[in-house]
Amino acid sequence: MLPDPLHPAVVHFPVVLAALLPVVAGVALAVLLKKGFSRGPWIVVVATSMALAGTAWMAIETGEEEEEVVEDVVSESVIHDHEEAAEAFLITAGITALILATGLLPGLPGTAGRYAGTAMTLAVLIMGVRVGHSGGELVYVHGAGQAYTSGTASGGDSDRSSRATRDDDDDDDDDDRRDE
User: Which residue in 8, 37, 47, 109 has a CA-CA distance of 20 to 30 Å to 62?
Assistant: First the structure.
C-alpha cells in the first residue's frame, strides 16, 4: 500500500541521491585515474545519475498531484517557487546524467564526459539543496502539512473544507500541547 500523500515519501530519494552522486562520481573517477579506463566503475555513476533524474521526475509528478490540496493552506506563489526549483533541479539532473553517460565512451570524449559530469554533480547537489530547502519551508514554515491534518486519517481523500489550517484550533483541551 502506498502512502497518502505520496509526495512526502518520494521527495527524499532525489535529495539523498543528489548528495551521494558527487561522492560516487569522485570515487569512480579516482579509481579510473589509478587503474585506467574501465566501464565498470563508471556504469555505477551513470546508474546513480539516472536514478536521481528518475526520482526527481517522480517527485515533480507527485507534487503536482498534491498542489491543489496544499494551495488551500499555503500561498500559491510559495508553491510556485518550490515547483520552479524542482523543475530546475530535474533539468540539471537530466543534463548531468547525459554528460555522465558520455563518460562511458573511450578516449578523449569519455574523459571529457567524466570530468565535466563529475563537476556537474556539484551543480546537481546545489540545486537539490535548494529544492529540498524550499520544500522544508513549505512544510515547517508555511504549514503545508496542515492540508492533511483533519479529523480523518485519509489525508487527500477528505473534504478540503474540513481540513484544519494553521493556528485555527484555539481550545485548551489539546493533548499535544507544546508548552508542557
Answer: 47
pTM: 0.79
Decide if 4 contacts 63 (C-beta within 8 A).
Answer: no
Nearest of 56, 65, 87, 59 to residue 147 by alpha carbon:
65
Domain boundaries, the chain: 16-148
pLDDT digits (tens), the chain, 180 positions: 877 788 988 999 999 999 999 999 999 999 999 988 889 999 999 999 999 999 999 999 999 988 888 888 888 899 999 999 999 999 999 999 999 999 999 999 999 999 999 999 999 999 999 999 999 999 898 888 888 886 433 444 434 333 344 344 445 555 544 444
Q: Do residues 166 and 146 lie in contact, with contact meaning Cβ atoms separated by under 8 Å?
A: yes
Nine cell digits for residue 43: 556504469
Using CA atoms, how far residue 69 sits from 20, 34, 55, 147, 169, in Å, is: 32, 52, 22, 6, 20
Q: What separation in angstroms does the CA of 169 have from each of 27, 41, 109, 114, 172?
A: 52, 55, 62, 55, 9
C-alpha cell belonging to residue 9: 515519501
CA separation for the pair 18, 32 (Å, rounded): 22
